[in-house]
# Entry
Amino acid sequence: MSAIIVLTSAGSEEEAKKIAQDLVGSRLAACVNIINKVESVYRWEDNVHEAEEWLLMVKTTSENFEPVKDAIRKLHSYELPECISIEISAAEDGYLKWLRENTQT
# Structure
């Protein structure tokens, strides 16, 4: 079981909190950090857009990636929400133990 961070962004603080609460409440994530008011510049439907977003850093396990992705898709207002997994290659043993214990269903 490897630890991962899943990145997604939300269009409002309320949406970010709703997603975070759901993921932690259902034990799909041990922790979600919400970084408020990041500026995003992106291409969508062949146009360049700028938006203020809230970045979510979801701490979970690789086994939970698919259910996390499905939950984000279900809860998110975006047509195509970002859902990127980054493997945690090194971390403190106690932290990894805590992460595993808090993502077991």
